[in-house]
Amino acid sequence: MLSSNFIQQQRGTNGELPAWTKALSAYRNSSAGRAGWQFVNSFLPYCGLWLLMVLSMQRGYPYWVTLLLAVPAAAFLVRLFILFHDCVHGSLFPWRRANNFFGHLIGVLVFTPFEEWRMSHLRHHATYANLDVRGFGDIWTMTRAEYDASPARTRLLYRAYRNPFVLCGLGVIINFMLANRIPTRKMRRRERMSVVFTNVLIVAVAMVAARFMGWRTYLLIQLPVAWMAGAAGIWLFYVQHQFEGVYWARKEQWNSLRAAMEGSSYYRLPAVLRWFSSNIGYHHVHHLNSRIPNYRLKPCFDAIPELQAKEPLTIAKSLSSARLKLWDEDQEKLVGLR
User: Other CB atoms closer than 10 Å to residue 132's CB: what's the count?
Assistant: First the structure.
């Protein structure tokens, strides 16, 4: 956690951003070679694990063998989702068409329509940590006053939603399998067509896969892989903006620098998990400049001391974040329901 004094000291007398933030732009350059290699070293192992799982089912191995193989497959699917996320920001490849092509392609694998998710996610970047503009790509967060004033049914629904087992369990099915399949009236034509296009491709891939391996084999592989990857992804997103010492403010007091540095976590993960999550743990760096590709986030963090001033969120510390449910405006912090 950073103190507000640190942020104030970083700002100039006229409220301009500190000089060190300008150094971030040096890390925005995308590399076609690195982006292409990231796709290859994520997609090919994912396909290889799928082949091994299919063979394990067809040759009559115990189902737990398939489930063991599903664990690394899910990890590679998480990595693919972060590459998809970079395509949304136009940062993975140097060219817009390449980002759009691979964004749509990976979107089919991760059950997420590219254009629709881009719209909601970019809005999340513009509004996160702002109490007056919530609900765009965020975890549902109520203030204590709102919760206390809500009817019993709403409070019960909120308690269920914020339960980590529901959020990372049923939430995967609701978000990736159902919500991402339904175009809404609020979407523009481009986003609606993206949803329809992704749905058609998902059905086509499923039918082709089922034609060669059978529906039973396909579903017994796809469902656990997608569920584990979705649960890990939701948890990563949760701890990026829901942790002890996080920053939220009303629109009048909202500060972009504080939102990035205090409203986003630095999730310090072991090297292997950092690789599979494509450095998304450096989330405060990402929110300071979303055009920095994942493969330049760590070099950027290592080069700028002010980024390192943020207290890291470890895996052990992050588990306690699950008890934080409400934003208390009087205390200016997340608190539990009690």
Answer: 10
Average pLDDT in the chain = 92
- For residue 40 the two structure tokens come to 């290859």
pTM value?
A: 0.92
Phi, psi of 130 (to 5 degrees): -100, 110
The letter for the amino acid at 62 is P
Q: Give 93-143 as a 3 state SS string.
A: CCCHHHHHHHHHHHHHHCCCCHHHHHHHHHHHHHHCCECCCCCCCCCCCEE
Domain boundaries, the chain: 4-335
**Distance separating alpha carbons of residues 77 and 19, to the nearest angstrom:** 38
Q: How far is CA 193 from CA 83, 185, 289, in A?
A: 22, 12, 29
pLDDT tens, position by position, 175-216: 888 888 888 878 889 999 999 999 999 999 999 999 999 999
113 touches 194 (CB < 8 A): yes
> CA-to-CA distance for 278 and 229, rounded, in angstroms?
14
Given a contact cutoff of 8 angstroms between Cβ atoms, the answer to whether 137 and 123 are in contact is yes
Q: ∠ CA(173), CA(276), CA(108), 5° rounding?
A: 45
CA-CA distance, 97 to 27, in Å (whole number)?
21
Q: Long-range contacts made by residues 329-333, C-beta under 8 angstroms, separation at least 24?
A: 329/131, 329/143, 329/144, 329/145, 330/144, 332/248, 333/244, 333/245, 333/246
- Residues in Cβ contact with 20 at an 8 Å cutoff, skipping those fewer than 6 apart: 10, 304, 305, 306
